[in-house]
Sequence to fold (365 residues):
Amino acid sequence: MSALRQRIETARERLRSGRFSNEASISTGIVLPLLDALGWDAFDPNEVAPEYKVRQRRVDFALVTKGRPAVFVEVKQPGNADGADRQLFEYAFMEGVPLAVLTDGATWSVYVPAEQGSMEERRAYLLDLAERPPAESADRLRRYLERDAVETGDAFERARRDCQRAKQRRGAQTAIPQAWANLVASRDATVLDRLAAEVESASGYQPEADDLAAFLDSLRPASGPLPKGKRAASLPSRTSRPQPPPAERDGGLPSRGFELNGEFVPASTAVNLVAELLDRLARQHPNLLETLARRTKTKKRAFVARDKADLYPGRPDLAHMSRPIGDGFWLATNNSTARKDRLVRAAAEEAGLTFGRDLRVRFEK
Fold:
């Protein structure tokens, strides 16, 4: 175990026992031992300068390289850090110090004062020694405070990048509710079709398009008007099924059908397309339907099976929604476009074909 990790373990034990009653005890018992393990000469006031003077004020510690302060460290009692970050920024700005650290012994906030935005937006990382594993804590402290990294400027660059990434992540997180509202309001065909396929997979039955749209509407937050260029789509009718996007529907083909190894085979319906394709592949690969049946079966139902009853378990009234394929197999015909697409792709993979090159499919007319 490294010296740094050992000292983190010691600090955690002392924090749990409540040994630190003031800033001086935190500095002596946690901060200086950790800085020493990070390569700083904690006993050299020219390198770890205590009570560093900034005009008429003082910073608890300045970490000095090449004769100039590179990091300011401000120590506060637990629970007394409110407002201390603003004070620390002022010190750093006055001296042009690139990194600033605020700690109460347990938590360590690493800031890049020169970054734009609020104080929170200028924080590269918040480390809690009590919560994070010692090995992870050691890695983080080395990343920002190891002496060699500070002296070369690597620590500053890492903190700056981490600060920018954290800012970008917060921006994306903030946009998630509005993005979801836009997606729900647009009733995108891909979303509807994927939802329909999942409902079918879970229940064994195709949902009504109106029911899908109503469910999505129930999830829409009251988030105000859509941004410019976005508008809600009209409600799908009960006779219209959600469809995949054009790029998937067309397959680069002139009409409904499939192209297998350069030969185009037209189909009058999407069901006929799937059945004819599986028949052809089964003739070339005798075990394909057996493996396809096992691969595509869900907890609720099968889509290819030797026993017709496995296609719609407990629903003999749906048995007519099937047709024979290959040598003794049955194909369920009550499937969404997305399910047909997955079935075709799985069959292509079992046959050793590259979908989109050896096999292309178009489900729409």
Notes: The chain has a mean pLDDT of 86.
